[in-house]
Amino acid sequence: MELDHETMGLVIAREELQNKHKPPSKKDPFATEVARGEAIKREIERSIIAFRIITNKAINNSPQPGEELAWLTEALALFSIQLPRMPREYIARLVFDVKHKILVLVKRDRVIGGICFRPFPAQGFSEIAFCAVTASEQVKGYGSCLMNYLKDYHVGTYRVYHFLTYADEFAIGYFKKQGFSKNISLPLESYHGFIKDYEGATLMECQLHPKIIYSDFHMTAKKLNDLYKSVKEMNRKKGGREYKGIEELFQKFDGKVLSPSDVPGLEKAESIPLADKNVVRKVKSILESIKKERKTFWPFLEPVNPKEVPLYYDYIRFPIDVKTMNERLKTGYYKHERLFIADLRRMLNNCYKFNAPESYYYNAACELAKFLRNLVLKKFPDSDLLPELPST
pLDDT tens, 92-108? Predict the structure, then answer.
């Protein structure tokens, strides 16, 4: 969707004007996040909450304010309560380890949230060990706010653009929401041997962008979403045009096949892609192979006769057979092998569904599945979709 500078300027001006007079919509998926983010900003401005990065300095005999030691102790208690599966001794070891740092969220002189992490600047990542918000302060946006603050801290202080963490089944949803993925982009040698493996947990990664201010990301995302919707609406109004019905064309051409360019409104329509000749040839070959084995696979060659099997079409909503597939082939329906293989699978599944496992037809479908699987593997070796035997 390409826009010139003038149109983009109009879209931005329109959005700014609308946002001044339009209350946030409850249906807007960003509205809740924006409201929480703005509420947290006001709490920061009024000094109700504060973020602090702390670490245990006492082990190195360095002076440390008593306030920080109190926050470390409160963070330990918070992690122990909110992460009951983690041994308290293990949590304490990491919280008071000089190599680990704690981002604490302090509200009215009490730690209500925190993230324990260990930076590996030379390796280009930080490991997140623990992340928690006290139960009474959850669902207020503090968890997202903590993670966004940590992202800004890493981008601005360490120039580190990757987070790694092991998430258990209860934490995966939270980390996904914060931009983490199970797909790890870092090379194995960057982190293998540096972070602890957790049995039964999933390794996840979050990549950071150096030009994003994550603490403002909720508002940025909403503005981008609003602009996108405005552009779509503007294009719809700009390009929208109604045409009268095409009854006259039917009368004028009396059943002749028309080109899309002859239909008002379709003069500039993109042409429908033709089926791949190579796919057509292979599909035709497979269908011919089935027909050659008529003695074995005859039940699948023609549509089921409703007079002979009255209940068939009550149970099978999407019937398919070799004859119908041949007709589809002639009309150019099979533009990709997946469409054809999907029909083969449906034909087999219909048979498995309607017939009893000990019946002749069910056994014939099993034999056909083996026969087709070999043919499909031979004709379409790269396909990830194959005819299947019934699941037991």
Answer: 999 999 999 999 999 99
pLDDT tens readout for residues 111-146:
999 999 999 999 999 999 999 999 998 888 899 999
Write the DSSP symbol of residue 272.
P
Q: What are phi and psi of 161, to 5 degrees?
A: -120, 20
Region of residue 375 (phi > 0: left; psi between -120 and 50: alpha; otherwise: beta):
alpha
Q: State residue 214 phi and psi, 5-degree precision.
A: -70, -30
The pTM for the full model equals: 0.55
Residue 11 has pLDDT above 60, yes or no: no
Distance in angstroms (rounded) separating the CA atoms of residues 99 and 60: 11
Question: How far is it, in rounded angstroms, from Cα 94 to Cα 88?
Answer: 10
User: What is the arithmetic mean of pLDDT over 148-160?
Assistant: 91
Integer distance in angstroms from the first to the last C-alpha of the chain? 49
Residue 315 has pLDDT above 60, yes or no: yes
Domains and CATH numbers, the chain: 48-160+162-207 (3.40.630.30), 277-379 (1.20.920.10)
- Catalytic residue from among 127, 242, 270, 367: 127
CA distance 160 to 191: 14
Strands 162-167 and 125-133: parallel
Q: Is-catalytic flag, 16?
A: no
